[in-house]
Design brief:
Number of strands: 9
Strand order of the largest sheet: 5-8-7-6-9
Order of helices and strands: HEEEEHEEHEHEHEH
Number of domains: 1
Radius of gyration: 17 Å
Amino acid sequence: MNQAENPSPFALADEAAAAIASITGVQKHDIALTLGSGWGKAADLLGEVIADIPASEIPGFESSGVPGHSGTVRSIALPGGKHALVIGARTHFYENKGVRAVVHSVRTAAAAGVKTMVLTNGAGGIKDSWKPGTPVLLSDHINLTASSPLEGATFVDLTDLYSSRLRGVAKEIDPSLDEGVYVQFRGPHYETPAEVQMAKSFGGHIVGMSTALEAIAAREAGMEILGLSLITNLAAGISAHPLSHQEVIDAGKEAEPVISALLARIVHAL
């Protein structure tokens, strides 16, 4: 396949960033947020909306096919003078569009000048002390997708991937925030109880279907990363309750006002 048929993912990200700059009039964004299930209302609390762009109008983006995601990219002027890019159009690995599509939003953010990437998600909790609606900081991850956004001989150090400095800032805002290791499964099926126990034995505390691949791409791009999970349910086998995506959406809606306000306060402190 030649270059025209398979363009560089970084060239496509540059094209997307140029389109965002043209539409918004903002030449450089400082912070980007990918808002997963339950985190969407944070976009309304961050600051003045410069533009709310349907994802399909930006090169390489598509409207999210997953309930609970807005399908837009929003440019926001933060109170301190910085600009945030809020991504509500996440492509998940299980959508079978390829890893490049999964991390395109992160690479676009980097091309737009972003130095701080905030990745959020709704996920299952392995710690039974975490009730649905609990926000948790990501301290590390385990990638069980058997894939990577890195191509060729691209060797990237993932030590302190989820910045200890940014976690410290978040804990200054809310000292009660707990931390955990996020385990990304491929999905879209939920994990079996045996798989959850495997993740636990590996050192995992949270199970989900996003974030890890995006974090690797963000590190490759030189961004500092903050990760947060909303515990929408206890993982399979931790409770006897069957899992459903509706449960994830419902738990997200119930927790949304509190966690969105928390996220806005954290972003304002970055």
